[in-house]
Specification:
The chain has 180 residues and is mainly α. The chain contains nine helices and no strands. It has one domain. Helix 1 crosses helix 9 and helix 3 packs across helix 6. The longest helix is centred in the last third of the chain and has 23 residues. It is globular.
Length: 180
């Protein structure tokens, strides 16, 4: 689905109105600025991101040793190889592509989007309720599509993410309302 700049901004604003002051936006005010210039994540940073991205499975991230988190994230943040960057993070317990993309986004907010099933559906990478097979090829195609939207609209990655995320949520509500 191709949304105009104005539509993305409208939906991103709706997202912000809904989540203002809640954990969904607090992380952007606390963790993102903190780790933006760090060369690695602390255990606390990882758990904070995990609670934001996937609250039900965040506990898995607590099983990682602090030194291991530090070394793995140092490698990811320093690497110039895109596959190494995203896949090395998956050595951490509880981290797969969606969580790894969140880590990269919060460290490099202008470079990496957050991969999410909602955006994969609305951007037509997968059909609704289709099992998603996350891999590097899908990640690269997704990143390229978000970059194309960024170039076309002049919007930052997070605004695009919020706009499409909210559009997916809104479209789901409209379908449920038609069934009533």
């Amino acid at each position: 689905m191709k949304l105009s700049r104005a539509t993305i901004l409208f939906y991103a604003d709706e997202y912000d109105k809904e989540f203002k002051g809640k954990k969904e936006t607090k992380i952007e005010d606390t963790v993102k600025p903190k780790i933006k210039n760090q060369t690695y994540l602390t255990s606390e940073d990882l758990i904070e991101i995990a609670k934001w991205k996937s609250p039900r499975s965040a506990w898995r991230c607590e099983d990682n040793e602090s030194e291991f988190i530090k070394e793995v994230t140092k490698i990811a943040f320093k690497s110039t190889n895109e596959q190494v960057k995203i896949e090395v993070l998956q050595l951490l317990k509880g981290v797969r592509y969606p969580m790894a993309s969140s880590i990269l986004h919060f460290r490099f907010p202008n470079e990496y989007p957050i991969i999410d099933f909602r955006l994969l559906e609305i951007l037509e990478f997968v059909k609704k309720e289709e099992t998603i097979k996350y891999n590097f090829s899908l990640w690269e195609k997704y990143r390229k599509r978000i970059e194309e939207i960024k170039d076309r609209t002049g919007l930052d990655i997070r605004t695009i993410d919020k706009g499409y995320w909210w559009k997916h949520r809104d479209a789901g509500k409209m379908k449920r309302n038609r069934c009533n």
